[in-house]
Specification:
With 111 residues, the protein is an alpha+beta fold. It is built from 2 helices and 4 strands; from the N terminus they run ββαββα. Strands 1-2 form a two-stranded antiparallel ribbon. α1 (22-30) packs across α2.
Amino acid sequence: TGFRRVLFRSNFFNRPAPFVTGPARGAVKNNTAIIFVRFKKIKRGRYYFYYELITENATEYTEQQLTLKYRDFIEQSIREQPFNYLWSHRRWKWEFKDEYKNLWIDDTQKA
């Protein structure tokens, strides 16, 4: 149960899912730039990596807002190249429970 306390809850592909709070918390605390790294498979064993800036100043956002921005980048990346996502990651391992309501950060309703 301790692990679940350090998670935000939000929709991920229209299903409630947990998101760790540490990256956003650290970015706000240290006012760091946040980048999202994408990669494209060129051929077997060959990949092209490229970076996209999420923000230069993390303190302009709340931890929740940064987590939602990051979630949006992940979803877009998966939609573009679903074969690159580790689907065995088990993002939806836990069922959403009423006790998680205070951790919900998404403006949309729980799916």
